[in-house]
């Protein structure tokens, strides 16, 4: 069964439960210098999803993702997330594991301060995806990013 909602949906049936949400951001290009990763022409939409058993998927605006970063006691601000930087370069997939900090978004480009855990980030590349590690959150449609700050599309399977 697939249930979808535009905007906030009823929290009925989810009260008190938590889910681990993962996020995906994509960009046409990227650059990296002095610990700063810039996702150029980043998608205005950040995808989110959970693993089984919840199976929740949806999207939120990238602009709304930034203030969400620092929300809650277990926020990304207090515990910076690991991420997989996936780069498709000349038909070859290159993956780099990083820690993301201090996001900044200007409506077109998204920057992070990064610490490389595994791999080497090229100075520039095209066709980039960033898979951001989990953050535990209450399992309610209203809690995914804050009801007063976003519009998103959500699906529960």
Descriptive notes:
- This protein is mostly beta strands and 157 residues long.
- It has one domain.
- Helices cover 4% and strands 57% of the residues.
- It has one helix and ten strands.
- The protein has one helix spanning 62-68; strands at residues 3-6, 18-33, 36-42, 45-50, 56-61, 82-89, 92-105, 110-118, 124-138, 152-156.
- A six-stranded antiparallel beta barrel has the order 2-3-8-7-6-9.
- A hairpin with a 5-residue loop joins strand 4 and strand 5.
- The longest helix is centred in the middle third of the chain and has 7 residues, at 62-68.
- The radius of gyration is 16 Å and the shape is globular.
- It starts with a strand and ends with a strand.
- The relative contact order is 0.31.
- The model is unreliable at 1-16 and 137-157 (pLDDT under 50).
How many domain regions?
A: 1
Strand residue percentage = over 45%
Major sheet attributes:
6 strands, antiparallel, barrel
Cross-sheet strand order for the largest sheet:
2-3-8-7-6-9
Shape: globular
Mean pLDDT, all residues: 78
Would you count the extended β strands for me?
10
Quote the distance from N terminus to C terminus.
6 Å
Q: Structural class of the helices, strands and pairings?
A: mainly beta
Oligomeric assembly: single chain
* Sequence stretches where pLDDT stays below 50 over 5 or more residues: 1-16, 137-157
- Helix-strand string: EEEEEHEEEEE
The helical percent reads under 10%
Kindly provide the radius of gyration, computed on alpha-carbon positions and rounded to a whole number of angstroms: 16 Å
Give the count of helical stretches.
1
């Amino acid at each position: 069964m697939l249930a979808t909602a535009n905007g906030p949906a009823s929290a009925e049936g989810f009260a008190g439960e938590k889910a681990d949400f993962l996020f995906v951001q994509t960009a046409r290009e990227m650059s990296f210098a002095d610990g700063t990763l810039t996702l150029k022409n980043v998608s205005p939409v950040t995808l989110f999803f959970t693993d089984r058993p919840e199976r929740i998927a949806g999207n939120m605006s990238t602009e709304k993702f930034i203030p969400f970063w620092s929300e809650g006691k277990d926020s990304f601000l207090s515990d910076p997330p690991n991420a997989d930087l996936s780069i498709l370069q000349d038909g070859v997939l290159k993956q780099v594991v990083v820690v993301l900090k201090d996001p900044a978004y200007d409506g077109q480009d998204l920057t992070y301060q990064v610490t490389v855990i595994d791999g080497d980030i090229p100075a520039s590349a095209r066709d980039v995806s960033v898979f951001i590690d989990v953050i535990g959150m209450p399992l309610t449609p209203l809690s995914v990013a804050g009801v007063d700050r976003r519009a998103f599309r959500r699906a529960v399977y």
